[in-house]
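Before going further, learn to read the protein records used in this course. Taken together, the tokens spell out the fold as the letters spell out the chain. A record is reproduced here so that you can trace the correspondence yourselves:

***
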Amino acid sequence: MGLLVLGLVLFIGVHSIRVVAAPWRAAQIERFGVRAWRGVFALASILGIVLIVVGYGLARRYPVPVWLPPRGMAHLTGLLTAIAFVMLTATYVPGNHIKRALGQPFVSGVALWAFAHLLANGTLHAMLLFLVFLVWSLVEVRAGRKRDREAGVAYPPGSFARDGLTVVIGLVAWAVFAFLLHGPVIGVRPFG
């Protein structure tokens, strides 16, 4: 489980710099340039993801049960992750009410995704992974909203057509991942 922890520290660490060390981040960007900063950020993020995936896979070989999720949690997780995919999609579809209402739809979607997976997974490694992502995303939502207020960011009014587009794209992406990709990529088929 050490690789999983190392991956989480690296990935969440680099993604938290803006929240915990914004002046240092700005100084590094000023010193090395935006391209170099993004390059190091991307490399550290990729390495973190690789360590998380490998560490999670190794931890699954010797699971430590903490609790047994009740029947039906997989279905509730499916519903909540479908909503999370719509929230993630709202980040990229301009002019939708969801983005305007949430302000930070991407990290809000990550929070819902992590919470949903905590409901359906009772092993120590799964709880560690999803709890870390839940806590991080909630901190990021709060920090992002504060940054938006301080910068005077106002999301434009949404349209119902854009809302519909957001929901359709999000649900299609969720269905493709849940029914086709989750098994081969993650190793678990959530719907059999």
In short: Residues 65-192 form one domain. The two ends are 27 Å apart (CA to CA). The chain has a mean pLDDT of 95.
